[in-house]
Fold these 3 entries.
Entry 1:
Amino acid sequence: MKPALLGMRGFKSPRAKTIKEELKQDKIMLIQEIHAAHQTWVAAQAHFEFAVDKDQIDYTIYAMEAAEKRFEMLIKQAKRLGVSLIDSDHLMEV
């Protein structure tokens, strides 16, 4: 029995290569989103440090919580897909 990605003669089909490339691109995009979400979360924490009145404090707390939830959601998605951020440099350079 041949693996699903192999063609009739046991060779990889061109479609298999495109699927693999699409998966790689999806993983790269997810890693980039995780980095951006982390930067947003750190920026929201910094804004909290400089909030002065009650409205600013309320807004920055809301922004921090939203950024943290988005970051956590993306990390869970990466875990489900088996994406390791430790290997992200290798994934992006190839």
Note: The radius of gyration is 20 Å.
Entry 2:
Amino acid sequence: MITYEFLQNYWWFIISLLGGLLVFLLFVQGGQSMLHSLGRTEDEKKLLVNALGRKWEYTFTTLVTFGGAFFASFPLFYSTSFGGAYWVWMIILFCFVLQAVSYEFQSKPGNIFGKGTYRAFLFINGVLGTFLLGAAVATFFTGSEFTVNKGNIVGLGDAGPVISQWQNPLHGIEALGDARNWFLGLAVLFLARTLASLFFVNRLNHDILVDRSRKFTLYNGVPFVVFFLAFLIWTLVADGYAVNPETKVVFLEPAKYLHNFLDMPLVLIVFLLGVVGVLYGIFATVFRPEYNKGIWFAGVGTVLTVTMLFLVAGYNHTAYYPSSIDLQSSLTVQNSSSSEFTLGVMSIVSLLVPFVLAYIFYAWRALEKKSLGLDDLQADEHSY
């Protein structure tokens, strides 16, 4: 029999998987951040833009799906975070709007701003969008400054019908005051740039750009590993936000996230396999001159690693969105989810997800039958 608890855990897994897919697809943003450093001539920049332009909608769609699924399955998180830390989320969404506008209008007739302006917008999206997404996810482990009072839903609290209240006037920007959030933000940024370099090696029919991309794989892979290890080690040894399974009281537990890995050995094994996949993709591409499949190992590894990190943040009696100023306001998979009926109906719809993923894979393969070169752009009426 499918229980309410099973549905809650099932939807946290779906959210975690979507988060992993989103981080992988951020290679588009990573490539945008390197348009002027990796591309030296106008032809090279145009080739890079068009290689990325055929993929940007995947990232945008996954971001919207991730947000929509979070809203439907865990509405209290959505109202607390998006309604409280709105400056961070507004900046992130604005960055992605800049991306959509830039791809669609940079080559339109009558463009009065010039390609340079729109490519600057792509650079902003590539750097700021990835960094802030990473910093926002880091707060799942470091905590945020909010309070929750469900009694307010019927107007019993001092704030009337307002359930969640943000307790810092910076409304999310204060997260940048925590070094651990910076570590994960920078790790996501350099991971996106690393994945983009691997993508270019695999996708482009341009010897100069491919050779340069191999070097950029190393240049970005090293700082990614450093920042990710700094975040991971700090998180494993730091206090975590545990939940008493009987009383539902939230308390600080030393090395909680390390305990989560040890208590869930399957999650630990998949996490380590993901890390190995990312590292293999990077090193094989850097040290094997003819190898160009690194994006697939690193891409799958990224999805597995990020998915397992989300599971560690929410499973095993853990508050996935902790309040650093009022522990009992922290959000858990159990106290922030939709009703059993809603989750049940959504679970039926979610059975279509594998078919959607299969279609995306088919469409991707259909568009990528051969490497992209400058000659292909001249024959393409819809080039960016």
Note: The chain has one domain: 4-144+179-379.
Entry 3:
Amino acid sequence: MTQKAVRHILDTIGELFPDAHCELHHSNPFELTIAVLLSAQCTDETVNKVTKDLFQKYTKPEDYLAVPPEELEQDIRRIGLFRNKASHIRKLCQMLLDKYDGQIPEKHEQLVELPGVGRKTANVVVSNAFGVPAIAVDTHVERVSKRLGLAAEEDSVLEVEKKLMKKVPREEWTQTHHRLIFFGRYHCKAQNPNCELCPLLDRCREGKKRMKPKTTRKTITNQ
């Protein structure tokens, strides 16, 4: 794909969603890290409902360690995989206290060492909390990138990330990450993409298949 074609995709998505942003509610890097950890295999909407009360009850790492594990599990019960996530949160908080004076570290390589924090979560935190350009590849970013030809269908999540980092100007990484998510979440959905009104239909592998006119077969009747 040419740089001109990439630019067209970025500009078009930018026009559709100029104000795309992180939809997880948070007021500091610690809350953002907890919210992203909770969002794995769960919608941002559900996470926000849970963290509304959670972040009032727990404001620092010590708070999560001061209650029995079962109490924290109960507080996040509406979240998928809540037992595993509660365990990760407690271990993460302990590591923050042991190694980082209770603060979220700013470096990517330090973040990925935290329990429950993978590459995607680390990218979200460094970009949104600390202003470091990054592209976090979630299911929306991966799906849209492959449909629009920014990545190959067989590419792994890491390969998608590397290709986007190569094709998108560094200063636009974080912005593009949010816009690709909005495009995938509100327009180019997994099951019911809005192909009929899509300004990028000519670039989309999935859209071309979906919009291809179905051939009608004539029924031959025996006279």
Note: The two ends are 55 Å apart (CA to CA).
